[in-house]
Design goal:
Layout lengths: L7 H11 L2 H7 L7 H19 L3 H7 L2 E3 L2 E3 L4 H10 L18 H14 L1 H20 L2 H13 L3 E5 L15 E4 L5 E11 L9 E7 L12 E6 L1 E3 L5 E4 L2 E6 L10 E14 L5 H37 L23 H33 L2 H36 L11 H9 L8 H14 L4 H15 L4 H21 L4 H31 L5 H18 L1 H10 L7 H4 L3
Parallel strand pairs: 3-6
Antiparallel strand pairs: 1-2, 4-5, 5-11, 6-7, 7-11, 8-9, 10-11
The structure holds flavin-adenine dinucleotide.
Flavin-adenine dinucleotide binds next to strand 3, strand 5 and helix 13.
Length: 582
């Protein structure tokens, strides 16, 4: 099992040099926040991820979760690590200050999230959903619900879940049938079954707060008739403490390909007491507050797995002796050379590294705009919110697709040993596979990008995002690098604008390739910008590494963008193409 080491040098470079967080916090007038504090938060997060969470990863996969007398038991050490996480205030990092949260900037929290995901995807998943639930309750719930539930959710004393999926209603939530009947006391009786509910039950906390989508009796059909309810596992007593068990139970837990230490539950609601969040029949848009946050966070899961796989593969490639290096013996006294000297192994490692570090850069640029969307002036807020909205499906789908590619490459670098459980490389690939599916499959992210983010406002979010990346290009000092980055960005912008005139069915067929084309183009700009900034760094090793990775990305990976562009322009065959043999 590779031992996880947090990529602190890269975080330092990105936060201090590339994003200049000192200046960023100053511009946002965030008193008390500076680069030094960011460094301290990230270093402390690294220690927690490495020392507390990572050692639980492989045993958690081996032991998994079980359902005993209707209660979920998580693997040994998971609950204790969670209690340490809460006691150290990690759960409250992003929580609103009026409910005892720390209100940290996203640029400080996102690196911590990445490290937790690298260390242990299963463990991180439950804490991630609690943070997303806090956002929805804070934005949409009544004052009473907020005062009653938010302090406990923010601190992590209780966790949150997201209950959308039903057997007949996965992607298409218009089909959901869980019912909510109004009661005289202002609460609702919730009845129905939800499947695949992450953290639906566990042994970490004294209560669990379920966010449940359901229909009122006279609700309109489809998504316009969905409402959101807060349904606690235990109803609260007069002192706000968990009292009688609500009518919520776990039917079963799923046996899965990966994230075996995360309980995925069938949840049954039998006249369970719940309270409305937001307006009646507006539940989907309230749930989107939670889902949009979770979508970016799932992207960070892909990134975390990619980093863990890359460093495992790099360590192994430096140790494993096989064959002589084609450029001449690297270790003449040994019987063979480390495989890291094989050009094909270098190709795999650089693919992992350039994708991982490119996605990390994009994740922190996204975090910077989350900061501005939260703490900036009204005009800046609006623009950064547009950038965040445009980039959310890109980060979710591309980072998780790259998570799968890089973890597969990690196995490949290990050869047959990568396929054997004890090395931990196959677990990373099994664990990361779900990230392409949940929180809206990656196909749905692509339709979201073209439908809601590109076409709906006729390119407004696109143009704001283009302006942000244009600023990165303008700041590149090397004229050749600047000209190349300019060409990549302008071609992408021109193609994006042309999409606005495409018929919608054609555009739906081009959506996935458009998302990939977008991601490769924007990552290329990030790489050119990073290499340029790194060239001025005193850290020569980092400067060389960034320069070479940028070159590798722009010459070996960026050509994939052209392939996606070509594919976008080709018609899809009709379904008759694959039903011809029936
Ligand atoms: C481990 C795990 C944890 C999960 N955790 C949660 C959770 O906590 N809460 C929760 O509510 N759900 C959860 N889910 C459910 C998950 O979000 C759904 O599985 C996912 O949204 C897809 O729904 P589905 O499985 O029904 O697939 P379907 O909707 O049946 O989709 C099947 C295929 O058809 C494609 N497709 C369907 N409709 C369209 C369309 N309109 N356009 C293009 N393509 C389309 C999809 O992209 C997919 O490839 C979890 C699932 C798993 C496996």
């Amino acid at each position: 099992m590779p031992e996880y080491r947090a990529p602190l040098e890269d975080f330092t470079f990105l936060l201090q040099d590339w994003l200049s967080v000192d200046k960023h916090y100053h511009q946002l007038d965030l008193q008390g926040f500076d680069g030094e504090l960011a460094q301290e938060v990230v270093s402390a997060g690294a220690k927690f991820a490495q020392d507390v969470v990572a050692p639980l990863n492989q045993p958690g996969d081996e032991i998994g979760c079980s359902l005993q007398e209707g209660k979920v038991k998580t693997p040994p050490g998971f609950a204790q690590a969670y209690q340490e996480y809460v006691a150290n205030g990690w759960n409250a990092m992003l929580g609103p200050e009026e409910y005892d949260g720390q209100g940290l900037p996203y640029t400080m929290a996102v690196p911590v999230h990445e490290m937790l995901n690298s260390a242990n995807l299963s463990w991180r998943l439950t804490t991630m959903l609690t943070e997303s639930a806090v956002l929805a309750v804070n934005r949409h719930a009544s004052e009473w619900l907020k005062e009653t539930y938010l302090p406990k959710l923010v601190s992590g004393e209780w966790t949150g879940t997201m209950n959308l999926t039903e057997p007949q209603a996965g992607t298409d939530l218009a089909l959901l049938s869980t019912k909510a009947i109004p009661k005289d006391d202002g609460s609702y009786a919730i009845t129905g079954s939800k499947i695949f509910i992450t953290g639906g039950d566990h042994d970490w906390t004294s209560n669990i707060v379920h966010m449940v989508l359901a229909r009122l009796p006279d609700a309109p059909a489809g998504v316009k008739g969905i409402s959101l309810f807060l349904v606690p596992k235990y109803l609260l007593d007069a002192h706000g403490q968990p009292g009688p068990h609500n009518a919520v139970s776990v039917g079963s837990i799923e046996h899965k390909m990966g994230i075996k230490a995360s309980p995925t539950c069938v949840m049954n609601f039998d006249d369970a007491t719940g309270w409305l969040i937001g307006e009646e029949n507006q539940g989907l848009s309230c749930m989107f507050t939670m889902m949009n946050d979770a979508r970016f966070q799932v992207g960070i899961q892909g990134l975390g797995a990619a980093q863990a796989s890359f460093q495992g593969a790099l360590d192994y490639a430096q140790e494993r002796l096989q064959s002589r290096a084609p450029q001449g013996p690297a270790k003449p006294d040994a019987k063979a050379d480390p495989i890291v000297y094989q050009p094909d192994v270098a190709r795999m490692l650089l693919t992992q590294q350039s994708l991982t570090e490119g996605c990390r850069a994009l994740s922190l640029l996204y975090a910077k705009h989350m900061d501005i969307a939260h703490f900036g002036s009204d005009k800046d807020k609006h623009q950064s919110q547009q950038v965040v909205e445009f980039l959310t499906p890109v980060c979710k789908a591309f980072f998780t697709d790259m998570g799968l590619e890089t973890t597969s490459l990690g196995i490949q670098v290990f050869g047959g040993h990568g396929y054997i459980r004890e090395w931990g490389m196959e677990q990373l690939m099994r664990d990361v596979r779900i990230t392409q599916l949940y929180e809206g499959t990656n196909g749905i992210q692509a339709t979201d990008l073209i439908g809601r983010k590109l076409v709906r406002d006729q390119g407004e979010k696109l143009n704001t995002t283009f302006a942000v990346f244009s600023d990165l290009v303008t700041a590149i000092e090397d004229p050749t690098a600047q000209a190349s980055a300019q060409t990549v960005l302008q071609n992408w912008h021109r193609t994006s604008l042309a999409c606005l005139d495409m018929p919608s069915a054609e555009l739906a067929g081009a959506a996935y390739d458009y998302l990939a084309y977008t991601a490769y183009s924007l990552l290329s700009v990030c790489w050119s910008s990073m290499a340029d900034v790194a060239a001025r760094s005193d850290n020569k090793a980092l400067s060389t590494s960034k320069h070479q990775c940028a070159h590798f990305f722009n010459t070996r990976i960026l050509p994939r963008a052209e392939a996606h562009l070509t594919a976008m322009k080709c018609d899809l065959p009709t379904p008759q193409a694959y039903t011809a043999n029936e």
